[in-house]
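Blinded run. Sample ID left blank on purpose so nobody reads anything into the name before looking at the predicted structure. Input follows.
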Amino acid sequence: IEADGFKSLTAGETVEFEFEQGPKGPRATRVIKL
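Blinded prediction complete.
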């Protein structure tokens, strides 16, 4: 999560993200709260 301080999300928050292929399948990267 691209943010200052404690990084967390709650259900229903709007985010923007990119994804990449990780060793166990796709994973989110560059997660930004909108």
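Unblinding after everyone has recorded impressions. Strands lie at 15-22, 25-33.
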